[in-house]
Design brief:
Elements: H1 11-29, H2 49-70, E1 84-85, H3 88-111, H4 119-138, H5 143-146, H6 148-162, H7 180-194, H8 201-222, H9 224-230, H10 233-241, E2 247-251, E3 257-262, H11 276-295, H12 298-304, H13 309-334, H14 336-362, H15 366-371, H16 395-428, H17 436-444, H18 447-464
Antiparallel strand pairs: 1-3, 2-3
Helix pairs in contact: 1-2, 1-16, 2-16, 2-18, 3-6, 3-8, 4-10, 4-14, 6-8, 7-10, 7-11, 8-9, 11-13, 11-14, 13-14, 14-16, 14-18, 16-18
Length: about 475
C-alpha cells in the first residue's frame, strides 16, 4: 500500500542514514585490516578475510533490505539553488592547463625520451582517468573547461572567422547513433589501459594525437556541442560521473558553459533520462576497475600467468561480457534508469578505492616532469631525481578509505536504485490504485539489483585483500 506523502524520507535524510550506517560499519571493521593495493605487506589482518567479506556483503544486503522495507525515497527533488557563474579567470586557467597539457604530451612524444615521469602517462592515466574522474563525480564538471579539444575547436573557429573564411554549417548528428560512439571509444581506452599499457610514451602520444584530430574533425562535422554530448569519450564519461556531484553544469543555448548550479549530493542520479548506453558505460567502467584489481593479484597470476596481448584481450573481453551482461539483465528486470542510478555510485566507489593511492603517489611525478619537461636529462629546478613515495599514507587509513568507498558506494546505489524504481512504479500508477501485491512486486523486481551489488562488493573487497603479484625483474 502506498505510504502517505508525509512519511516519505527526504533526500537529505536518506543521505544521513546512509552516511551513518557507512561510518558505523567502517568504525566497526577498521581494526580488521587485510593486505590490499598500496598497503604495506607487514600490515596483517587481525581477522580472516572471509569475515570482512561476509560483513561487508551483509552490510550491503541489509542496507538494501532497509531501503526496501522502509521505502526510503523522496517525493520530488529538492529545488536547485540559484545558479552561480564560474569566475572567468578560473575558466581561462583551466582551459590553458588543458591545452598546455595536450601540447606537452605531443611535443614530448615526438622530441622527448621515455621514463616513469613522461607526461603522456601522467596526464592521461593519473590526472585524467583518475583525478578528473573523481573531481567530476565528487565536486563538479571540471572537464567542461579542462577539455582541450573544445578549446582548440573554439580557438580554431575564431581564427578562421577572423581570417574571413566562410563557415560551413554542421551536419545534424544521427540520433539513432545515440552515445554508442563514446561507448565504443571508452572500450578502446579500457583496452589501451589494461592490455596495451606497456606501450611507450611515443605510442601513447601518437594515440592521443590521432584521437585529437579525430575529435576535432567530428566537432567540425556535427558541431562541438553535439559531438561532446554523444561521441567525445571523456566528455560523455565525466558528465555521466557528474550525476553524483553536488554541482551541475548549466549549458547555454549557444553551447557556452559559464554557470554551475548547486544541488543535493547524488540527486542527479534520480532523473529519468537514463539511456541503455549509460548502463553499458557504467558496466565498462566498473568492470575495468575490477579487472585491473583482479589481474594484479597472486591468485590471478597463478591461474593465468602473464598473458600476452591476445590472451589478455580475450580475458578482458570475457570478463567485460560477464559484467555488462549482468548489468543488462538487471536493467531488463528492474529498468534502465534504476539500474544506472544503482550502479553508478558503485563505479565511483571502486574508482576511489582502487586508484586514490595511485593518484597520490604517482601524481607526485609531476615534480620530476617539470624539471625535465622532455625527459632528456635536464634538471631545471633540481627535482629531476625526486622519488615518489606513499610511505606517508597509514595503511589503516588506506584500508578504511577503501572499505568506506566500496560499501558507501553500494549503499548510495541501493538508495538511488530504489528511489528511481519507486518513481517509475508511481508513474505507471499515477492515481495510487496499487495493491499490496503490486507494491511487493515492485520491490521484488529490485532483488536482482541487490544481488549484483552484494556479488560486486564481495569480489572487489576480495581483490583488495589479496597479496599482489610482483614480477621478477
Amino acid at each position: 500500500m502506498r505510504r502517505p506523502p508525509g512519511a516519505a524520507v527526504r533526500a537529505g535524510g536518506a543521505a544521513r542514514i546512509i552516511a551513518t550506517v557507512g561510518v558505523g560499519l567502517v568504525a566497526f571493521a577498521a581494526p580488521s585490516i587485510a593486505l590490499g593495493h598500496a598497503l604495506a605487506r607487514s600490515f596483517e589482518s587481525r581477522l580472516p578475510l572471509a569475515v570482512y567479506l561476509a560483513g561487508a556483503a551483509g552490510a550491503v544486503a541489509l542496507s538494501f533490505i532497509f531501503v526496501l522495507a522502509r521505502d526510503v525515497r523522496i517525493e520530488r527533488p529538492a529545488e536547485p539553488r540559484r545558479a552561480q557563474r564560474v569566475p572567468g579567470a578560473l575558466r581561462t586557467v583551466l582551459r590553458a592547463i588543458g591545452v598546455i597539457g595536450l601540447l606537452w604530451i605531443l611535443v614530448q612524444g615526438v622530441l622527448g625520451g621515455e621514463s616513469d615521469a613522461e607526461v603522456s602517462r601522467l596526464f592521461a592515466w593519473v590526472y585524467g582517468w583518475v583525478g578528473v574522474a573523481l573531481i567530476s563525480a565528487l565536486i563538479g564538471p571540471i572537464w567542461a573547461w579542462l577539455d582541450p579539444f573544445s578549446t582548440v575547436h573554439v580557438l580554431g573557429a575564431r581564427a578562421l572567422r577572423r581570417a574571413g573564411a566562410e563557415s560551413v554549417p554542421a551536419v545534424s548528428y544521427p540520433e539513432r547513433l545515440g552515445q554508442w560512439p563514446a561507448v565504443a571509444g571508452f572500450a578502446a581506452v579500457v583496452w589501451l589501459e589494461l592490455v596495451a599499457s606497456g606501450a611507450g610514451s611515443r605510442t601513447l602520444a601518437l594515440v592521443i594525437g590521432a584521437y585529437s584530430v579525430y575529435t576535432l574533425a567530428m566537432m567540425a562535422q556535427f558541431g562541438r556541442q553535439a559531438w561532446s554530448t554523444h561521441g567525445e569519450i571523456f566528455a560523455v564519461w565525466f558528465r555521466l560521473l557528474g550525476r553524483l556531484a553536488p554541482y551541475e553544469l548549466v549549458v547555454d543555448s549557444d553551447g557556452s558553459a559559464t554557470v554551475v548550479r548547486r544541488r543535493g549530493f547524488a540527486s542527479g542520479l534520480l532523473g529519468a533520462d537514463w539511456r541503455l548506453e549509460d548502463v553499458v558505460l557504467v558496466g565498462l567502467g566498473t568492470g575495468s576497475i575490477l579487472f585491473d584489481g583482479l589481474s594484479q593479484t597472486q591468485v590471478w597470476a597463478d591461474a593465468f600467468g602473464l598473458p600476452a596481448a591476445l590472451p589478455q584481450t580475450i580475458l578482458l573481453t570475457a570478463f567485460m561480457a560477464i559484467i555488462i551482461g549482468a548489468a543488462l539483465v538487471v536493467a531488463r528486470l528492474v529498468g534502465v534508469a534504476a539500474t544506472g542510478a544503482g550502479l553508478l555510485p558503485i563505479a565511483v566507489g571502486y574508482l576511489l578505492a582502487h586508484y586514490f593511492t595511485y593518484l597520490l603517489t604517482d601524481g607526485q611525478r609531476i615534480v620530476i616532469a617539470i624539471s625535465d619537461p622532455l625527459q632528456r636529462g635536464a634538471n631545471l629546478f633540481g627535482t629531476a631525481f625526486f622519488e615518489p613515495s606513499g610511505s606517508w599514507l597509514p595503511p589503516a587509513l588506506v584500508w578504511t578509505l577503501q572499505l568506506a568507498s566500496v560499501v558507501g558506494g553500494h549503499m548510495v546505489g541501493a538508495w538511488a536504485g530504489h528511489v528511481v524504481a519507486s518513481r517509475q512504479a508511481r508513474a505507471e500508477d499515477p492515481l495510487g490504485n496499487g495493491t499490496e501485491g503490486s507494491v511487493l512486486s515492485v520491490r521484488l523486481r529490485q532483488v536482482p539489483l541487490a544481488a549484483i551489488m552484494v556479488a560486486l562488493t564481495t569480489l572487489t573487497l576480495w581483490s583488495l585483500g589479496q597479496a599482489l603479484f610482483i614480477p621478477e625483474s
